[in-house]
# Entry
Amino acid sequence: MKKKLVVLTGAGISAESGMSTFRDSGGLWEQHRVEDVATPEGYERNPQLVTEFYNSLRMKLPDLEPNQGHRLLAMLEDRFEVTVVTQNVDNLHERAGSSHVIHLHGELTKVTSSWNPNNPKYIKELQPDEYEVHVGDLAADGSQFRPFIVWFGEAVPEIEKAISYCEQADVFLIIGTSLNVYPAAGLLNYVPWGVPVYLIDPNNVAVSSARNVHVIQKGASEGMKEFVRLMEEG
Ligand code: OAD
# Structure
């Protein structure tokens, strides 16, 4: 039986593909106010601004390629049963070949009902020629289509599923997240004691846990090369 590898990823794994991170200098939250573009109140105040913000991120997707970090992670499915729990809303894990991805914060390529955002009946996968969404585009229940994104202050419907995978992990890996946003940042607490924990990030990340974390202080691609080497040795 293959061992279970659970991987928590954040914006840093997509940085080498050209996606902006949020909190690094020059990151998205330096250019936009979180309250304006990533809260239900911001959307209510100015749906046009929020729609345009996510349109601009979504329309970048076709020009981005998964990087070696995403690809090596997908290749690990040969050796492990891999579950990727990502905070990212891009589709680069899937495009690199990862077959089991849990998106905690939603997906840019989807829109949903603004009345019933989590009802699968109203979630629509957009084709690339539909990536520019307009105020006035309606979901099947007659409400305005909103981005399928989990905004600050909203529940994270996928968290229970993510927790149960963390509880079963044989190896846990964290890549490219500042661990600032909960509940994602708390997932490490569900990983059983004794399970090896690795963290790939070029910068120092404060891990609020007493456990031993094997830090690989590198970018995602180089860090993943080292992680693969360590798994081959171990
Ligand atoms: P952050 O921007 O907070 O953190 C990005 C992390 O990536 C930092 O620790 C960087 O050091 C690291 N990093 C930068 N370049 C890297 C590289 N080449 N390789 C690997 N790591 C690199 O992004 P997240 O932690 O993902 O939520 O942010 C979490 C959530 O906050 C996001 O999902 C988003 C945001 O607000 C919502 O919008 C709901």
